[in-house]
Amino acid sequence: MGVEPDEKRVMYSKKLYSNYEFKVLEEYSLPVENESIDYILIISVLHHISCAEIKTYTEEFKRVLKPNGRVIAIEPCMYQHKPFCNFFMNWLDQGRFIRDEKGYIDIFIRTVINAMF
Asked: If pLDDT is split at 50, 70 and 90, which confidence band does 117 have?
């Protein structure tokens, strides 16, 4: 199942891939039952959203994931000793929140720890 907040993109995806299920994400709420998902795959999304929004999403992920469920995130990131790559990442990508690897890890650690307490 694919989930996207933009209804036009969902309709386009349904047209291209009619054998798959696509749904519109509304108000940060995934359209699935509690503890019903094995894996959540996020590809190049997080660098477009703020830390506060990521926290909201991770709370929703916790709701929908099965007890042994996993989140897999693939994101562009900045590298300490690669200024040339970082320059092109900033130039080519429209993400306002491109972080370094530590930045992504810190967000997830804070979110998971906050969710536990």
From this structure: very low
Architecture label for domain 32-116? 3-Layer(aba) Sandwich (3.40)
Dihedral sign (CA 16, 17, 18, 22): negative
If phi > 0 it is left, if psi is from -120 to 50 it is alpha, else beta; for residue 65 that is beta
How far is Cα 99 from Cα 112, in angstroms, rounded to an integer? 18
Q: What is the pLDDT of residues 79-91, one digit of tens each?
A: 666 666 666 666 6
**76, 85 Cβ separation under 8 angstroms:** no
Specify the DSSP class assigned to residue 80. Answer: T
Give the mean pLDDT of 94-112.
Answer: 75
At position 102, the amino acid (one-letter code) is: K
- Domain residue spans of the chain: 32-116
Q: pLDDT of 44-75, one tens digit each? A: 888 788 888 888 888 898 899 999 999 888 87
Separation of first and last alpha carbons in the chain: 31
